[in-house]
Design goal:
This protein has about 190 residues and is an all-alpha fold. About 80% of the residues lie in helices and about 0% in strands. The chain contains eight helices and no strands. Helix 1 packs across helix 2, helix 4 packs antiparallel against helix 5 and helix 5 packs across helix 6. The N and C termini lie far apart (about 55 Å).
Length: about 190
């Protein structure tokens, strides 16, 4: 499982305080507080790798962070959103419509995940990602009909969320009604034999 940035910081803080010794308090010498703070910041940077290490170096140079609490806040702000994005992308890549989930609820669930996974992107990008995930996750028996309807609406220039959901709901209803009717006829035929 992915470790949250908050869990990482708590583990780091506990470990570094064990290594550095006595933690300063409000009565400590200001020089001791600054030295302790600088050691904590440097040790933190040495624990990071890859993109997090680059982020740290940019923060130290750009913001000239010499306050551990401000650096922690900046790290949490930056990396909690990345973890949320990662988890949402992972869920989107495996999405499927639940058996009792309506088309509209499925659309809403995807929209919420896309919002988390692509938070910095524009509305058109997000809308495109919602359609992609919807077509990926819709039940196999409807997929081809819905895909065809999507492209027809797009070619006509009439593709909108409302039109797409109405058409998709209609396709699902008709397909389910046909399937249920077929099953009922099979059951009745077996009972008559």
């Amino acid at each position: 499982p992915t470790q949250s940035s908050n869990e990482f910081l708590n583990l780091f803080t506990n470990k570094i305080e064990q290594l550095l010794g006595e933690q300063p308090n409000e009565n400590s010498d200001p020089n001791y507080i600054q030295i302790y703070n600088n050691k904590r910041i440097a040790a933190f940077g040495n624990t990071l790798t890859n993109g997090a290490q680059t982020w740290y170096l940019n923060q130290i140079q750009k913001e000239n962070h010499n306050d551990w609490n401000k650096l922690k806040e900046a790290f949490l702000k930056s990396y909690d959103s990345k973890i949320t994005e990662h988890n949402a992308l992972l869920e989107l890549s495996n999405i499927s419509r639940k058996p009792t989930e309506s088309v509209t609820l499925f659309w809403d669930r995807i929209s919420n995940l896309v919002e988390k996974a692509h938070s910095g992107k524009d509305k058109n990008h997000k809308t495109e990602k919602v359609y992609e995930a919807f077509l990926l996750g819709i039940d196999h028996e409807y997929k081809e009909q819905i895909r065809c309807k999507y492209y027809k609406l797009e070619d006509k220039g009439t593709l909108s969320e409302q039109t797409f959901l109405e058409e998709t709901s209609r396709i699902v209803r008709v397909t389910e009604k046909t399937r249920n009717s077929f099953i009922l006829n099979k059951v009745l035929a077996v009972q008559q034999d």
